């Protein structure tokens, strides 16, 4: 998974530590960058996921 540029929902949950249910909630509210080609599986670009994670830092 470390070299993959695109992650599945399960991989993104594992990578971020976010639960599957909360990840679905984030995608349904368009709060996280994702792709859903052909209306089926949800995918995440690692670079966009990293930027989203870092953008949510509190100082």
Automatic annotation (TrEMBL):
Helix-turn-helix domain mapped to chain residues: 6-54
Annotated transmembrane regions: none
Gene3D superfamilies: 3.90.105.50
GO molecular-function terms, A-Z: DNA binding
Any Pfam family hit: HTH_17
Protein name according to UniProt: Helix-turn-helix domain-containing protein
């Amino acid at each position: 998974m470390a070299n993959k540029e695109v992650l599945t929902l399960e991989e993104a949950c594992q990578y971020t530590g976010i639960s599957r249910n909360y990840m679905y909630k984030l995608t349904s509210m368009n709060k996280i960058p994702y792709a859903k080609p052909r209306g089926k599986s949800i995918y995440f670009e690692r670079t966009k996921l990293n930027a989203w994670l870092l953008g949510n830092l509190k100082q």
